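ok posting inputs for the adenosine-5'-triphosphate job
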Amino acid sequence: MTTTQGNTPTATRPELVTIGLMSGTSLDGVDAAILTTNGTDILRHGPSLTVPYTPELRARLRSLLDKATTLSADDPLIRDAEQALTDIHAQAVAALCHKAGKSVPDLIGFHGQTILHEPGRTWQIGDAARLAAATNTPVIHDFRSADVRARGEGAPLAPLYHAALLRNHAPPVAVLNVGGVANVTFIATDGTILACDTGPGNALLDDWVHQHTGQSYDQDGALALKGCVNDAVLERLLDNPFFARPLPKSLDRLSFHKGMAYLSDLSAADGAATLVAFTAEAVARTPLPEQPTEWFVCGGGRHNPALMAAFAQRLSGIVHPVEHLGWDGDALEAECFGFLAARSLLGLPLSLPTTTGVPHPQTGGRLTCAGLLPDRMRACALLIAEQTATPLIRTGG
Ligand SMILES: Nc1ncnc2c1ncn2[C@@H]1O[C@H](COP(=O)(O)OP(=O)(O)OP(=O)(O)O)[C@@H](O)[C@H]1O
Ligand SMILES: CC(=O)N[C@H]1[C@@H]2OC[C@@H](O2)[C@@H](O)[C@@H]1O[C@H](C)C(=O)O
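and the output
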């Protein structure tokens, strides 16, 4: 059946080969994935890869998080970081095209690096015009601002992608992404898509492990598995009004940072075990209207056996990594931003009242074709004219 969502009936929409690029709150690098989609259906998954940040760039970005509220977009600290960050994204696109044996995709979805996320304001850095010129590909970026301007949370944005993946799966079911921050997409028995950030993912644990061992994360949960949960500290960490707040809701990477002071008397191993329990218990306390029968876990946290054991212990319902469904849990967020880029181009919603609290289904993202070579520019103009009423925003070039 042909359905109409946005401007173009589904049956006549083009197949777009997208590259989605996500650099998440863990600050570990750029994930890149190829996805073919018409903005509604996921037609083909392509290859994916990760380009890690250098320790120097990671440290630079980490220090920007602490200063973000005091910086303006034209501050040299931001400009310099944006250049370095964008060039790594361009490298990721080139490496992925090489891996896939493709020249260039139709469209890139460039999330950018979140350096600040608070009520009424969200800030992802990255230079979309530089990326478009470097890759000779139209780029959709700035995915979250339209939702925030419309009084939504601006996050999470993965739910419509998760819902598209789960279209034929029996509800109630949840996808849990455990990145720096953790977020859930819940499909209720009646098909409603609910979502929110649940609490910390790996970020607090990463910071704790870095402070105590110099490593950037607790590989295979080795440290946490040696420790014991301190229940008194855990309850203090959970004594935060965020957990009782109804959905939808979202978080900054640093939202729970002050709570790290409660761990000061714990050994490295007990602190790690307690932070693992904090992540899992925060998910368990998420006020969902009914309990999922199955949880599918994606993001780097699913590689941590201590975390997976804590989810299995504290959540009702069966807990699986998303590989159980044949998905790639390391590529999912990058694929999501390819999917959302296609939706943006077609003027389709990226968020719903039940996923970000935005009053109406909301599209978003901005398109730049800056610096494209003339042939490519013509091909893009035709595609855009055929498929959408989205205005072509030319940011230079
Ligand atoms: N083998 C492993 N053992 C333990 N933890 C791991 C392992 N592999 C990855 N991780 C954890 O996963 C994190 C990276 O997760 P991911 O790539 O999903 O983050 P992200 O993309 O920044 O997330 P988000 O955007 O969702 O916040 C690492 O910082 C680390 O904590
Ligand atoms: C503001 C921001 O970048 N939020 C990220 C972050 O990382 C996980 C969680 O917090 C989620 O809300 C979101 O990313 C995913 C991709 C999302 O929008 O669904």
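notes: The first strand starts at residue 4 and ends at 5. The chain is about 35% helix and 20% strand.
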